[in-house]
Amino acid sequence: MIKITDTVQLGQLIKQKRKEQGLNQKDFADAAGVGNRIVSEIERGKETAEIGKVLILLKYAGLNVYIGDE
């Protein structure tokens, strides 16, 4: 399990998983059903990215989200 503490780390993780799938940003975005711009913004760690689209990309990247107390 990976602990993500900021949007930059989240973006790096999504980028890593996208590259593992052998996809460029456009193909990843198309396959996930989101715009290419949102993939770019999330991978750069943009803090105002839409949470719904972030969750879509996480799912398409094969990642699950768990929330717990520290």
Structure description:
The chain is mainly alpha-helical. It has one domain: lambda repressor-like DNA-binding domains (434 Repressor (Amino-terminal Domain)). It has 4 helices and no strands. Helix 2 (25-32) packs across helix 3 (36-43). The longest helix is centred in the first third of the chain and has 14 residues, at 7-20.
Name a few traits of the molecule.
57% helix; mainly alpha; 434 Repressor (Amino-terminal Domain); 70 residues
Task: Give a short synopsis of this structure.
The protein has 70 residues and is an all-alpha fold. It has helices at residues 7-20, 25-32, 36-43, 51-60.
What overall form do the CA principal axes indicate?
globular
Number of helical runs? 4
> Percent helix among the residues?
55-70%
Task: Give me the CATH architecture, please.
Answer: Orthogonal Bundle
Radius of gyration, in angstroms, nearest whole number: 11 Å
Instruction: Summarize the helix and strand pattern as letters.
Output: HHHH
